[in-house]
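Deviations from the work plan: none for this task. Representative record:
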Amino acid sequence: MTVSKTAAVDAGKAARPGRKEPVEAAAEGTALQMGELSELLGYSLKRAQLKVFDDFLRCVAPLQLTPAQFSVLLLLDKNPGRNQTEIANTLGILRPNFVAMLDGLESRDLCARIRSTNDRRSHILVLTDKGRAVLTRAKKLVASKHEARLNELLGPANRAALLDMLATIAREF
Amino acid sequence: MTVSKTAAVDAGKAARPGRKEPVEAAAEGTALQMGELSELLGYSLKRAQLKVFDDFLRCVAPLQLTPAQFSVLLLLDKNPGRNQTEIANTLGILRPNFVAMLDGLESRDLCARIRSTNDRRSHILVLTDKGRAVLTRAKKLVASKHEARLNELLGPANRAALLDMLATIAREF
DNA sequence: TATTGTTATACTCTATAACTATA
DNA sequence: TATAGTTATAGAGTATAACAATA
């Protein structure tokens, strides 16, 4: 469980001035005490999220896709015939902010807006052939590089448990 | 484990125009298929992080502290005698961006910058009495409202396991 | 010369109001 | 009137370069 009782260091006072610290980790500049920060779930959650997104970007760099863009392509593939509002809402993206995002994907010919014949206010979103091809390649990179690395670090069982708990928080918290 | 097999919906056609939908959850607009998004760790990580930060803000609203500000106060309390660069680096905040953040805390009399006598370039950061008092109250709110809710949702053992895995990712990924 | 705190700046995300064209 | 897509805009958060004071 790695409880990390972090032997109390009691720095800061620097009471004895004559004490010549051995050139350990970093002369006098030792690592700081995280204190109850190590017990704050939100803190580790944020730091972990940044790392994971960073790795995602690195792994999928050849395709120039952000996590958000990847999620849009995935959703379009699984949900043909949906309009902008539906896709944006599902991903927690505000409609106004989704416009520029779609512009980016559409200008790269990864998806297209099609004016609906039923309701001519709305745009049906579809993946282009290129979009489907890029998505397929992206999925392979994500699985073989990104998720594989996480699996390696945590082990399959832990990774599944982690995913389950995160989904629970996202759904019910 | 909550596998969520989410019965296939197959919406999108909306063929019959005369169909007057009963005012159910949302007329014809059924929930979308998340597809492999539910297996993407980064996606749930992000959504969970947003929820947790939201709840943190809500719980600690009476004290008007963001998660980032709380982490600074915690760190100052546990690490007296440190300068801006050391605190910012530890929290992953860039030094230029830390300036405005400190300005905010200092203007509220929660902490103070003290010119170091050893190295007159650097500012030693200290909590004020008010800062210590606010931190104490914040810790109580976080523990009794925020973290307690997470504990309730996941159970203590799962919560500990989650924290451990997130810390592992933040540290080693 | 190098480092600390700082300013300026820019780019991304996110959030809200209001417009247009359709319904 | 209400809704879909859009524009404009404002605010966070984050990133880099460069400057003054100090070492």
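Strands of chain A lie at 111-115, 123-127.
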